[in-house]
Amino acid sequence: MTKHAIAIFGEVLFDRFADGLEVLGGAPFNVAWHLQAFQQAPLFISRIGDDQAGAKIQAAMQSWGISNAALQIDSHYPTGAVEITLNNGEPEYQILANQAYDFIDTQAMQTIDCPVLYFGSLAARQSVSRQALQQLIKLHQGKVFVDINLRAPWWDQPLVAELLTQADWVKLNQQELQLLQATGDCIETQMRQLIERYQLEVLIVTLGEQGALAIAADGELLKVVPDCQQIVLDTVGAGDAFASVLLLGMLKAWPLAISLQRAQQFASALVGQRGATVNELAFYQSFKAAWL
């Protein structure tokens, strides 16, 4: 039995930009990276190929201090990759099929004992990893945080609905909220409909440059907006940065309003960097000093 404050399940991959830059990515990996920098020692559950890219991931995890105890090695499928282009500053993704993270093995997973389980919906796109995820959810006794990432063609309505029924906290963007067939004249009505339909504890909707909204089961609606003076280099990984601080708030029992404000602050700092992760601990220092 291994005890961790948080288990993170899902993809690790390389984001490959049109100019040749390769940056470690994958929403769950990005979240694990940030939480490690915030000294939360997450357990990252994923699968990489037995290849050069996989070796780079192992080296990066080791240098950053992320545990590789739940990292599986695949001798057949390659380490994950996504081709990214920026269109007017917004990322467009080509997510490659049949990647190692699609084949996380249930039998190879260790028993997990942790208060929080986080995963993104992309982790369930393939039946093998989906089975491993469902087994993990079945055995999990704590809170479940689901990060909805609806990337065509890698999702369908019944699958996402099933994940939502298993969630306590859910994060998604406004377009994804509408894709999940939320109805109503305004976003608040749509959010209330979704939180009631799936009996969620907290629902967060990110709004890009307009900030984010959050609603709790008690009906409290909160809004946060970014600083209009922020520098935006690219927005890749902004949602993952946002999620990582929401999770930090869960672990530290911050009030939702504080978690939302701090998540926006951190995401606003991240978009001033290139790529979804930052390799310098100094980037995190001011946040740690203020929050931890």
Largest sheet: 9 strands, mixed
Mean pLDDT: 92
* Low-pLDDT regions: none
Q: In the CATH hierarchy, what is the class? A: Alpha Beta
Query: What quaternary form is this?
Result: single chain
Number of helical segments? 9
What spatial order of strands do you see in the largest sheet? Answer: 6-5-2-10-11-12-13-14-15
Query: CATH topology, which one?
Result: UDP-N-acetylmuramoyl-L-alanine:D-glutamate ligase
> How would you name the CATH homologous superfamily?
Ribokinase
Report the strand count. Answer: 15
Q: Which sequence of SSEs, written as H and E, runs from N to C?
A: EEEEHEHEEEEEHEHEHHEEEHHH
- Principal-axis shape equals globular
Number of domains: 1
At CATH level 2, the architecture is 3-Layer(aba) Sandwich
N-end to C-end Cα span: 28 Å
Radius of gyration: 18 Å
β-strand percent reads 15-25%
Q: What proportion of the residues is helical, as a percent range?
A: 25-40%
The secondary structure category is alpha/beta
Overview of the structural elements:
The two termini are 28 Å apart. This protein has a nine-stranded mixed beta sheet, with helices on both faces. A four-stranded mixed beta sheet has the order 4-3-7-8. The chain has one domain: Ribokinase (UDP-N-acetylmuramoyl-L-alanine:D-glutamate ligase), CATH 3.40.1190.20. It is of the alpha/beta class and 292 residues long. The mean pLDDT is 92. The radius of gyration is 18 Å and the shape is globular.
